[in-house]
Specification:
heterotrimer, A alpha/beta (348), B mainly alpha (306), C mainly alpha (306), B: 306 residues, mainly alpha, MetI-like fold, 79% helix, globular, C: 306 residues, 0% strand, Opp2B (chain B), Nickel import system permease protein NikB (chain B), cell membrane (chain B)
Chain lengths: 348, 306, 306
């Protein structure tokens, strides 16, 4: 918790991203705030459709037509990225902030060697000549733990395994020493053993460079392993926000609790594995009250009628327990009665 | 790869065989006495017999075809019934002109087609895209010989800046090349557009943007290089159509290529020449397609993710 | 991201035929390309119909012609467009407008009949190759390869040169040219459909081949056939016009548009209207079929992109 007063590497405030379809505006991200400091990992967790990937693409300004960032600010070390012109921002992208994606199989261009794809990023941002950039590419391959990097640099993506390709993606992303790395489901497409290796690698490289990491995932296991702070997203909103220990000790929001119960655990029989019934509401028919109410086992009329705010709990919290913030009526003074979730879902 | 090439080469054999058979049989379609048709009504019985003798028309069909094939392997396509010259000697210089014409047509088709295809894809669903694609479908619907006539009317008759006919100088190349290339440009532009649109949403294009690659390089380097692969096939096929399109273009601009030769030979009922020219054009087409297949395979090897 | 349920595109969707037809019409009207193409096409079809009906029903004259398309007027040669002769007159003083109107039904007849005949044979051979496979497949597809080895109008040119120049021979030649095109498409679609579950299930239940082919396979391969037919009519009209332009197609005095262009080119220096109007007619009609074909493809083929 030493990070309170320094300028965050990334600070997102009130981010709103919409898609303008023939059927009208679809709010995929609706007022999201969070911040990450250097040397810190912020996990953003949620199901598909929660808006977590759109959030990360918004930070990179990679939202394509018909999508558009319609509100909020995104500050990188105090500079508002949304105020930069396209040309100015292109100088930052891949340089001061960079991103790795879910699908290592398709995220590399099949017609160029992996070495040239790393060298391209280096050449754009560091103004090196071809030879020096290539050398840098080989060094990066070595750094991300690829054996025989001189030889591998000359290979095409299809000649490498999925894990290797994700390492190459990391090499590209880190080739210019970014202040911020966004990892969007970096291990989802990989085997379990490779997943651990990749996460380990990101952590190791973070320790070396001190960069901030934004880890986007649907997997709380990944969060537990990598994150310092966690943002839980649901239907385009942040529903809970806490540091990782607090979150796992005392998840507040019924949705977070549901996610926790969905993690396979060795001590629980698979049959008892609890999933959250239902799906994320589509942005086209977003409920006016709490967006989770439809799937929430504790929902009351209040929840269906009024939209809760993200706030520090003022009700129904045990004495002496630190909590983050949540967007749930249970923890407000308007909720009368005991906390129905009490003792339901904890993950000690 | 070598095995692939070898297998494709082996597959060519029956096709080449079939092409020669079809070209050979075409004479059999001629109603009535071929010798009479070729020699004309005024020919005497002795002249007809002489012609039958020369062309071996008295032998059974199988023997005729065997001889035809045997000669063909020795690059002997027989003699013209009009001039008595070996067909091969008549065809060779004209074949070169036709290939030149087709290549110039390709230059127009590929450069114009790729340019407009990329333009259309980058400005997808804008006025530029719609305009370009409308132009393309009109280009596709225009008879190339009519376009040639319009060009002659405008540039030769009205403006007087380009010669109406002939082949050799650069001025003589311009209008035939445009005439040949327009429909091809339209096909290539349409193909390039749809291929680019398929590629532009790929993950690796997003990766390129995430690296900070400028939008222009994203389009021309990362997207285009991948989009080009299916376009190569279309370009190759177009070359074949240019060989046949040359028949009309050469006719419009009075270019002494193979296509004009075919038409002249038809009107003179000079069937050995028609046969020879058709075989040469078809075999060229088959080999061009073979090369395109190989090129596609080479280019596609990297793409093939599994 | 969103893991939507993947429906196998277009297959297995068995909607009631009427609603399917209605849905298709709706899509075609909403698509600007096919709407525009459809309107021009209906316009040309009405012209053709008026000519045909006027020939068939004695005493009735629905015709849109202002003059006889063949009667000459030596005193009124090369008249420019005027109130009496809307598109002017030709080298024999014949009314170009009336000739174009009369030529409409010829062009549509050649284009549709050659495609229809080609499609019928092509579908037959394609079904044979795709459904029964094995030796049928090898023979038929090899034969298709051979015919397709003659690029563009070359095959039709060769056939017509042997059969002799006439409208029926043009139709025969262009039909043969269309057969392998349809055979290939049908075979490909049959192979796709043959192995999907419901066909396999019906087969396992012991249904007869004829029943399977007509009730289950043909309806499912109809989409690509319809799309191709529309585009192929466009190509065929262009080829027919090309043959007539070369003088080996429809013969004068029949006012086929390509033949009219061939007539007019000699007088282009002073009288461009002889070449301009028939050319515009060809472009419009071919454009109509191309745009309709594009629209049909967008509507019927879920894999094609907007």
């Amino acid at each position: 918790m030493a990070s309170n007063e320094q300028t965050p590497v990334l600070e997102v405030k009130g981010l709103q991203t919409s898609f303008f379809t023939p059927d009208g505006e679809v709010k995929a991200v609706d007022g999201v705030d969070f911040s990450v400091n250097s040397n810190e990992t912020l996990g953003i967790v949620g199901e598909s459709g929660s808006g977590k990937s759109i959030t990360s693409l918004s930070v990179m300004r990679l939202i394509q037509h018909p999508g558009k960032i319609v509100g909020g600010t995104i500050e990188l070390s105090g500079e508002d990225l949304l105020k930069k012109s396209k040309q100015q921002f292109a100088k930052y992208r891949g340089n001061r902030l960079s991103m790795i994606f879910q699908e290592p199989m398709t995220s590399l261009n099949p017609v160029f060697t992996v070495g040239s794809q790393i060298a391209e990023a280096v050449r754009i941002h560091k103004k090196l000549d071809k030879k020096a950039a290539w050398q840098e590419a080989v060094n990066m391959l070595k750094l991300v733990g690829i054996p025989a990097p001189e030889d591998r640099a000359k290979r095409y993506p299809h000649e490498l395994s999925g894990g290797m390709r994700q390492r190459v993606m990391i090499a590209i992303a880190l080739s210019c020493d970014p202040e911020l790395l966004i990892a969007d489901e970096p291990t989802t497409a990989l085997d379990v053993t490779i997943q651990a290796q990749i996460l380990e690698l990101i952590k190791e490289l973070q320790e070396k460079s001190g960069m901030a990491v934004l880890m986007i995932t649907h997997d709380l296991g990944v969060i537990a392993e990598t994150a310092d702070k966690v943002v839980v997203m649901y239907a385009g909103e942040v529903v809970e926000q806490a540091d990782v220990k607090t979150l796992f000790k005392r998840p507040l929001h019924p949705y977070t609790q549901g996610l926790m119960n969905a993690i396979p655990r060795h001590d629980i029989d698979l049959d008892e594995l609890e999933m959250i019934p239902g799906t994320v509401p589509t942005p086209q028919n977003m409920p006016s009250g709490c967006r989770f109410a439809e799937r929430c086992p504790y929902a009351r009329d209040l929840c269906v009628e009024k939209h809760p705010e993200l706030a520090t709990p003022s009700n129904n919290v045990d004495e002496g327990i630190t909590t983050g913030q949540t967007r749930c009526w249970i923890y407000t003074d308007e909720w009368d009665g005991p906390n129905p979730t009490k003792g339901v879902a904890t993950n000690q | 790869m070598h095995i692939f090439i070898l297998r494709r080469l082996l597959q060519l054999i029956p096709v080449l065989f079939g092409v020669t058979l079809v070209a050979f049989l075409i004479i059999q379609l001629v109603p009535g006495d071929v010798a009479q048709v070729m020699a004309g009504e005024a020919a005497s019985e002795a002249q007809l017999e002489q012609m039958r003798e020369n062309l071996g028309l008295n032998d059974p069909l199988v023997v005729q075809y065997g001889r035809f094939l045997g000669d063909l392997i020795m690059f002997d396509l027989g003699e013209s019934v009009r001039t008595g010259q070996p067909v091969m000697d008549i065809i060779a210089p004209r074949f070169i002109i036709t290939v030149e014409l087709a290549l110039w047509g390709m230059v127009v088709a590929v450069s114009v087609g790729l340019f407009f295809g990329i333009l259309s894809a980058t400005y997808r669903n804008t006025i530029r895209d719609y305009g370009t694609m409308t132009l393309a479908v009109v280009g596709l619907s225009m008879p190339n010989f009519w376009l040639g006539l319009l060009l002659i009317y405008w540039f030769s008759i009205q403006l007087g800046v380009l010669p109406t006919s002939g082949w050799g100088t650069w001025q003589q190349v311009i209008m035939p090349a445009i005439t040949m290339g327009t429909a091809g440009a339209a096909v290539i532009a349409r193909m390039t557009r749809s291929s680019m649109l398929e590629v532009i949403d790929q993950d690796y294009v997003r990766t390129a943007r995430a690296k900070g690659v400028s939008e222009r390089f994203v389009v021309y380097k990362h997207a285009f290089r991948n989009a080009l692969i299916p376009v190569v096939t279309v370009i190759g096929l177009q070359f074949g159509y240019f060989l046949s399109g040359a028949v009309l273009t050469e006719n419009v601009f009075a270019i002494n290529g193979l296509g004009r030769l075919v038409v002249d030979a038809i009107s003179q009922r000079d069937f050995p020449v028609v046969q020879g020219a058709v075989i040469v054009l078809a075999i060229t087409f088959v080999f061009v397609n073979f090369l395109v297949d190989i090129a596609y395979r080479v280019l596609n090897k990297r793409i093939d993710l599994n | 991201m969103g893991s939507t349920v993947n429906q196998s595109p277009g297959k297995a969707e068995i909607a009631a035929p009427e609603s399917r037809f209605k849905g298709l019409m709706k899509q075609l009207i909403r698509n600007k390309s096919s709407l525009f193409g459809g309107i021009i096409l209906i316009f040309f079809l009405l012209i053709a119909l008026s000519t045909v009906l006027s020939q068939w029903i004695p005493g009735w004259n629905f015709s849109l012609m202002t003059h006889s398309p063949t009667s000459t007027d030596v005193l009124n040669r090369f008249a420019p467009p005027s109130a009496d002769h809307w598109f002017g007159t030709d080298q024999n003083g014949r009314d170009i407008y009336s000739r174009i109107i009369f030529g409409t039904h010829l062009t549509i007849w050649i284009g549709t009949s050659a495609v229809l005949i080609g499609a019928v044979f092509g579908i037959f051979f394609g079904l044979l190759a795709g459904y029964y496979g094995k030796i049928w497949d090898t023979i038929i597809m090899r034969a298709a390869d051979i015919l397709l080895a003659f690029p563009g109008i070359l095959l039709a040119l060769a056939i017509v040169s042997a059969l002799g120049a006439s409208m029926n021979n043009v139709i025969i030649a262009l039909s043969i040219y269309n057969i392998p095109v349809f055979a290939r498409i049908v075979r490909g679609s049959v192979l796709e459909v043959k192995n999907i579950e419901y066909v396999e299930a019906i087969r396992a239940l012991g249904a007869r081949d004829g029943k399977i082919i007509f009730q289950h396979i043909l309806p499912n391969v109809s989409s690509p056939i319809i799309v191709q037919a529309s585009l192929q009519i466009a190509t065929t009209i262009l080829s027919a016009a090309g043959l007539s332009f070369l003088g080996v197609g429809v013969q004068p005095p029949l006012p086929e548009w390509g033949a009219m262009l061939n007539d007019g080119r000699s007088y282009m220096w002073d009288n461009p209207h002889l070449t301009i109007f028939p050319g515009i007619a060809i472009v419009l009609l071919v454009l109509a079929f191309n745009m309709l074909g594009d629209g049909l493809r967008d509507a019927l083929d879920p894999r094609s992109k907007k």
